[in-house]
UniProtKB/TrEMBL annotation:
SUPFAM superfamilies: Nucleotide-diphospho-sugar transferases (SSF53448). One of its GO terms (biological process) is spermatid development. Residues 142-324 form the Glycosyltransferase 2-like domain. This is Inactive polypeptide N-acetylgalactosaminyltransferase-like protein 5. The chain crosses the membrane at residues 9-27. The gene is GALNTL5. It comes from Neomonachus schauinslandi (Hawaiian monk seal). Coiled coil: none annotated.
């Protein structure tokens, strides 16, 4: 009997060991294959198009598969973006520590720890941006950063980059909102490390899990700066990033502006330049990055000219604080995160505001790969989609339901307050939005 038990234990352990080894080999093989496929030198920047077409989690929100179209630039334009930051040393991607960190945070946590709390990033702005000058007397900014179980060093690099690359007289404060994190290093260790910023940072800890949307509202309610700037917790701002945003809002308080978002590779943590692109979406209400028309970069400003954007990605933008309140903030009845970026984008355009991307403002962002089968997130995005559809799309909501007929009878809560907000603001129709802001959406309704 004892021999039988011993044999069972032996073969069970052997089987477990074999499967574990196969898992490591599979992950290592995939990573090596991906590295071999990555282009080197100047061609590396054009891999962004492929990156953006993959499913990723962007600014703590789901961005489904994108359809991006880019034209290859002139050779001299490519040369402007040849310098990349080579981050740290190569890691052994078959190690259990790498796998554990990746599953925990969604990117290379070992390399993030080796980089530490701050680093220099390449200046990815077009050379014409270096000739721009901004007045010293600009509005002040409150930077709101929400996080939940973020990797400690990535969070600290976000804050350090803001502190180090922002003139102190325009940085009113950084407001950190902890949405019920349960990792130990985000408790007392974080409190202790924040002391070096000498009161420039306010830390708010939610008493219950609120989700990104309501956490941002909590942060905004504590802000005292003239402008609210929302950042994700795994960003690194670039040189002269804030001045263009504040200057645009100072000239027009109803102008909402976004920086151009440079991708930070989730495996190598390399900071890479982004081409000039704009935010868009399809009839499934899936956000996507889209190409910019060549005529939009004509004229004396060239590729530094502000770009009209039908939609924002969501995680990274600046808005006048009083205008944010006037226009209705976020729909606080939306769940977790997802779709709030599209809802706010439509509200800005349809209710008298403007939404632009400023290529001379650059912010890096870790593009995390998306892991499917997250039922809580899928449910929240569906619920939020329906709230947007029934408040803002008018008769065009049928275009959404043609693609998602099963959602016609799904509950979406009470929208009476948002409907009343639209009436009070005197907002235009969705037909106006299609005709004046995003006509490409209507012409594509047969194919999306």
């Amino acid at each position: 009997m004892r021999g039988v038990i011993f044999q069972c234990l032996f073969y069970g352990s052997l089987t477990f060991g074999i499967w574990t080894a196969l898992l490591y080999i599979y992950i290592h093989h995939n990573h090596v294959s991906n590295l071999e496929k990555k282009p080197q030198g100047p061609a590396l920047i054009w891999s962004l198009g492929k990156k953006l077409q993959q499913q990723i989690i962007h600014d703590d929100k789901l961005i489904p598969r994108s359809r991006v179209r880019f034209e290859r630039p002139d050779e001299d334009e490519t040369a402007e973006y040849q310098t990349f930051l080579k981050s740290g040393k190569d890691s052994n991607y078959s190690k259990p520590e790498y796998i554990a960190g990746f599953l925990k945070y969604g990117f290379n946590a070992i390399l993030s720890e080796s980089l530490g709390s701050e680093r220099d990033v390449p200046d990815t702005r077009n050379k014409m941006c270096l000739q721009k000058h901004y007045p010293a007397n600009l509005p002040t900014a409150s930077v709101v950063i929400c996080f939940h179980n973020e990797e400690f060093n990535a969070l600290f690099r976000t804050m350090s980059s803001v502190i180090n690359l922002t003139p102190q007289h325009i940085l009113e404060e950084i407001i950190l909102v902890d949405d019920m994190s349960n990792f130990d290093d985000l408790k007392e260790k974080l409190d202790h490390r924040l002391e070096i910023f000498r009161g420039k940072i306010k830390l708010i800890r939610n008493k219950k899990k609120e989700g990104l949307i309501r956490s941002r509202l909590i942060g905004a309610s504590r802000a005292s700066g003239d402008v609210l700037v929302f950042l994700d917790s795994h960003c690194e701002v670039n040189h002269v990033w804030l001045q263009p945003l504040l200057h645009a809002i100072a000239k027009d308080p109803k102008m909402v502006v976004c920086p151009l978002i440079d991708p930070i590779d989730y495996e190598t943590l390399e900071y890479r330049p982004s081409p000039v692109i704009r935010g868009a979406f399809n009839w499934h209400l899936e956000f996507k990055w889209d190409n910019v028309f060549s005529y939009e970069m004509d004229g004396p400003e060239g590729p530094t000219r502000p770009i009209r954007s039908p939609a924002m990605a969501g995680g990274i933008f600046a808005i006048n604080r009083h205008y944010f309140n006037e226009i209705g903030q976020y729909d606080r009845d939306m769940e977790l995160w997802g779709t709030e970026n599209l809802e706010l984008s439509l509200r800005i355009w349809m209710c008298g505001g403007k939404l632009f991307i400023l290529p001379c403002s650059r912010v890096g962002h870790v593009n995390k790969p998306h892991f499917p089968n997250q039922p809580g997130l899928v449910k929240a995005v569906t619920y939020n989609n329906l709230r947007l559809v029934h408040v803002w799309l008018d008769e065009y909501k049928e275009q959404f339901f043609l693609r998602r007929p099963g959602l016609k009878s799904v509950a979406y809560g009470n929208i009476s307050e948002r409907v009343e907000l639209r009436k009070r603001l005197g907002c235009k129709s969705f037909q106006w939005y299609l005709e004046n802001v995003f006509p490409e959406l209507e012409t594509s309704k047969g194919s999306q």
